[in-house]
Amino acid sequence: METKQFWELIVNKLKKENLIDPDIIEEYILTSELVKISNKEYVILVRSNLGVTILNELKEVFVYGFKSFLNDYVAVEFSTKVIFNKNNKANIKKEEASKLLPDNALTFDNFIVGSSNKQANLAAKNVVTNPGSSFNPLFIYGDSGLGKTHLLQAIKNEATLSNKKVLYLTSEDFTKSVVNALNKGDLKEIEDLKNKINSNDFFILDDIQFLSKKDKTNEFFFNIINNFTENGKQLVFSSDKTPELLNGFEKRMITRFNSGLSTPINSLDIATAKLIIEWEIKKQGLKQKIKEDAIVYLAQNFSDDVRKIKGIVNRLLFFGIQSDLNHVIDLENIIDLFKDTPSANLGLLNVKKIKEVVAKKYDVTIKAIDGKARTTEIKNARHLAMYFAKIILNHTSTQIGAEFGGRDHSTVLSAISRIEKLIYKEKEFKKIVESLKNEIVVK
Ligand SMILES: Nc1ncnc2c1ncn2[C@@H]1O[C@H](COP(=O)(O)OP(=O)(O)OP(=O)(O)O)[C@@H](O)[C@H]1O
Q1: Which atom of ligand 1 is nearest to the CA of 110?
Q2: Does ligand 1 come within 6 angstroms of the Cβ of 117?
Q3: How far is CA 383 from the centre of its chain?
Q4: How far is the CA of 424 from the centre of ligand 1 (A)?
Q5: How large is the ipTM?
Q6: Where is the region Domain IV, binds dsDNA (predicted)?
């Protein structure tokens, strides 16, 4: 279908469902144009900057509109024609330059985004486009193996492609250089090192928890932080803890770490873990097909750390080498292959836990959720629990039907769709869903 017709369909749908004020439709939407960037990315060109601001507030409604026709979530951005054309030219240049990066470079393109890391990913992209503004320093924290270094390297690569001067160091290397210079007691050497670091547009320091806490190293570091913030240049730090929990730093340092944006990378949720497993399988080139429920099982049980996922996929490849090319790897194979591997807590997540959390919230029983009663409270609880079984556990609609008192898969689909619609329409309901989701996935 032509993009123009497709855009008309979406606008008509949003109009019909009264999801947008008619004046806004008239003034900003009917005068806009849709541009398809890829199957997953669309840009809506609006006539004015004010229009962009207003429509950005309604982004979720548009995402809903696209999903109704495409049956998938897509990225929707708003822009004016002038800005879009300017960015497009810059992107083409960047695309050319990015071909110079090694194949295994850690970039935003090969970082898989899901609810556990989307905030950190967004903040990381933001400091590349707006260096030295409000998110300075950017402080990313989280457990080992969840992608902190990956995001820091992505910032480095992307900023370098935009012709920025970037210094990325591990805290160990930074400490070594500083201690070396200080031990020599040669003032010029210390000044040279300071100037060398300060000459960059970005200073990225990984695993800050390992930084030496000696007074003089701290003093040196404090000076660097001040130079960067005063000159509007970007600082990025990563750590396994929040700034407040970092031991041994002076209070003034903690205040500096907190003066920009601290953002977590949380433990993987099952949907993201599943995407990373599928991506690794594809990247590493497993020859055999693997069944969906087998991947979900791996995601539920072994995805507390992305490094572990890589190890799991290596074992799958080894299994593949020993198997027939036509063999389809199923759940039974996987359970057998990983029977001695200790599983992560995610394995404890199941439909029962979802039903318990939702039943408590709506003050109904699990029996009622599985039963036939259709009071508003029971229906809401049932539909929401089905929705969570889909987005958190990634169960199929047939599977969910069976788990909720033997319902038809089309009943499940319409329940999920009802919840999605409510989330887009009602901000309060969206908040409830977010908080219940956190309660369910918390370890
Ligand atoms: N969301 C993701 N998408 C793709 N690859 C990822 C993702 N998260 C992590 N990885 C990969 O997992 C591996 C471990 O990630 P990384 O080194 O960035 O973790 P980390 O949080 O810095 O851990 P540590 O605190 O131990 O240094 C890397 O190979 C990284 O590329």
Answers
A1: 4
A2: yes
A3: 26
A4: 32
A5: 0.98
A6: 321-443
